[in-house]
C-alpha cells in the first residue's frame, strides 16, 4: 500500500513542530499546509485549528510531527512522538529530516502504535511488508494563486470521478487561506511556517500589481498619446518656444524620452532586429530609471538637500571674491606689464558690476534654492539622465554671468 504526502517546499527547512493539514477523502493521501513550531501548548493548537476549520470550511487536523533536530534538541523526536496521544488520529505521520541530506524519513504510526516505516532516500530499498510513502513536493504559492483563474469543471461521460486527488489538493490549499494569515510578525502564542510566513505585505503588493497592470498600461498609453499630441502642436513651433526648447537640456531630454516610449509602444515587430532594438531601449530606460530612483533616495535621506542648499551660497561668495581679486589684479599692473589704465578701469569696473549683480541675484534666490532642489529632485524618478539635464539647466541659469562675460569679450575684440 502506498501513502502519498503532498509536502510544501516552503516547509523543507521549518523548525520542529506539528504538521497541520488534511487527509484527502477517497484517496490514501494527505496534504500538509503548515508547520506549527515548538514550543506550543496543545490546548492552544486545538483551539487554533478549530477556529481555522470554522473560517475556511476545511476539515483540518494535526497530521503528525515534523522534526528538524538542532543542537540541544536530542529528545525532540520522542516528545513529538508522544503528542500522538494528545492529537488522536488513525495514522500519525512522524517526518524527520537532517541537515545536509536531501531525503526525508517517515514513520507511520497507527492507532495501535504499530510502526510502519518508510524512507524517501536516493538509493535505499524498501521492504515489501512496509507501507511505502511517496513525497510530492509542491510550491504552495503557485497552487494558491492558481485558484485566481479557476477552470470550470466540464461534465464528461466517461465515468471519471468528478473530484480527483489533485483537484482536492488544489481546493484544500485555496480554501485554507485563513491558515496563511498567521506570520512571524504576529504576537500570538503560535508560530507557523507556510508560503506567507515571512509576511503578507509582499504578496498583496504583487497581486495588486498584477490586477492593475492592464489598466495602468492603458493609462500610460493614453498619457503618451496626449503628450505626443502636445509636442506636435503648432504653438510650440513659435520662435521663442522653439528657441528655448532647443537650448534647454530638459526639453531635449523630454523629446528623446518621448521617442523611446513611442518605440516601445509601437506594434509588435516581426523582424528580429526590431525586437532586439525594443529590448535594448527597454533595458536602457529601466536602468536609467533605477539609477534615478537611487539618486532620489540619496537626496532625500539624511538632509542632503538642505546641506547642498546651505553650501551653495558660501561657494558662490567664494567664487565671486576670487573673481573680484583677479579683476583688481588685472586693473593694476599684472606681472609688471604697463597696460592702458583708462581702458583697464572701464572694463574692470564693468565686469565688477556684473559680478555684483550676479552675487545679488544668488542672494535673492537663496531662500528658494532648497525648494528648487527639493522639487527638482523629484524629477530623478523619470531617470538619471533627466535629473542631470535639469541640473545642467540650473547650473546654466546660475552661471549666466559667465556667458555675459564671453559675449562682452567677444564683442570687444571684434571691434
From TrEMBL:
GO terms for cellular component: endoplasmic reticulum; membrane. GO terms for biological process: GPI anchor biosynthetic process. Keywords: Membrane, Transmembrane, Transmembrane helix. Residues 110-130 are annotated as: Disordered. InterPro entries: PigQ/GPI1. Residues 120-130 have a biased composition (Acidic residues). This is Phosphatidylinositol glycan anchor biosynthesis, class Q. The lineage of its organism: Eukaryota, Metazoa, Chordata, Craniata, Vertebrata.
Amino acid at each position: 500500500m502506498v501513502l502519498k504526502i503532498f509536502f510544501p517546499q516552503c516547509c523543507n527547512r521549518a523548525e520542529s513542530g506539528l504538521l497541520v493539514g488534511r487527509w484527502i477523502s477517497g484517496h490514501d493521501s494527505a496534504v500538509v499546509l503548515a508547520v506549527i513550531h515548538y514550543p506550543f501548548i496543545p490546548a492552544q493548537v486545538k483551539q487554533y485549528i478549530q477556529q481555522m476549520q470554522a473560517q475556511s470550511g476545511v476539515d483540518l487536523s494535526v497530521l503528525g510531527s515534523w522534526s528538524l533536530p538542532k543542537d540541544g534538541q536530542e529528545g525532540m523526536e520522542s516528545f513529538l512522538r508522544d503528542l500522538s496521544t494528545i492529537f488522536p488520529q488513525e495514522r500519525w505521520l512522524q517526518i524527520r529530516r537532517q541537515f545536509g541530506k536531501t531525503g526525508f524519513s517517515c514513520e507511520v504510526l497507527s492507532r495501535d502504535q504499530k510502526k510502519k516505516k518508510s524512507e524517501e532516500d536516493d538509493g535505499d530499498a524498501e521492504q515489501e511488508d512496509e507501507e511505502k510513502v511517496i513525497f510530492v513536493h509542491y510550491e504552495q504559492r503557485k497552487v494558491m494563486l492558481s485558484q485566481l483563474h479557476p477552470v470550470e469543471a466540464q461534465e464528461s461521460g466517461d465515468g471519471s470521478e468528478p473530484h480527483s486527488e489533485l483537484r482536492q489538493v488544489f481546493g484544500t490549499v485555496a480554501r485554507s487561506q485563513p491558515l496563511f494569515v498567521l506570520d512571524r510578525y504576529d504576537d500570538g502564542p503560535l508560530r507557523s511556517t507556510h508560503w506567507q510566513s515571512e509576511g503578507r505585505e509582499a504578496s498583496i503588493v504583487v497581486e495588486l500589481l498584477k490586477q492593475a497592470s492592464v489598466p495602468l498600461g492603458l493609462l500610460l498609453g493614453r498619457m503618451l498619446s496626449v503628450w505626443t499630441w502636445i509636442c506636435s502642436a503648432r504653438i510650440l513651433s513659435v520662435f521663442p518656444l522653439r528657441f528655448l526648447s532647443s537650448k534647454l537640456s530638459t526639453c531635449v531630454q523630454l523629446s528623446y524620452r518621448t521617442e523611446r516610449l513611442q518605440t516601445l509602444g509601437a506594434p509588435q515587430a516581426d523582424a528580429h532586429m526590431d525586437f532586439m532594438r525594443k529590448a535594448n531601449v527597454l533595458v536602457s530606460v529601466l536602468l536609467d530609471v533605477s539609477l534615478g530612483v537611487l539618486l532620489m533616495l540619496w537626496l532625500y535621506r539624511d538632509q542632503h538637500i538642505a546641506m547642498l542648499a546651505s553650501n551653495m551660497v558660501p561657494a558662490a561668495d567664494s567664487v565671486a571674491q576670487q573673481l573680484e581679486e583677479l579683476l583688481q589684479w588685472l586693473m593694476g599692473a599684472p606681472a609688471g606689464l604697463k597696460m592702458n589704465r583708462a581702458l583697464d578701469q572701464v572694463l574692470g569696473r564693468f565686469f565688477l558690476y556684473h559680478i555684483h549683480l550676479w552675487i545679488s541675484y544668488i542672494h535673492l534666490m537663496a531662500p528658494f534654492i532648497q525648494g528648487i532642489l527639493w522639487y527638482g529632485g523629484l524629477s530623478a524618478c523619470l531617470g538619471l539622465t533627466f535629473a542631470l539635464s535639469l541640473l545642467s539647466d540650473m547650473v546654466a541659469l546660475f552661471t549666466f554671468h559667465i556667458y555675459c562675460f564671453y559675449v562682452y569679450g567677444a564683442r570687444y575684440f571684434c571691434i
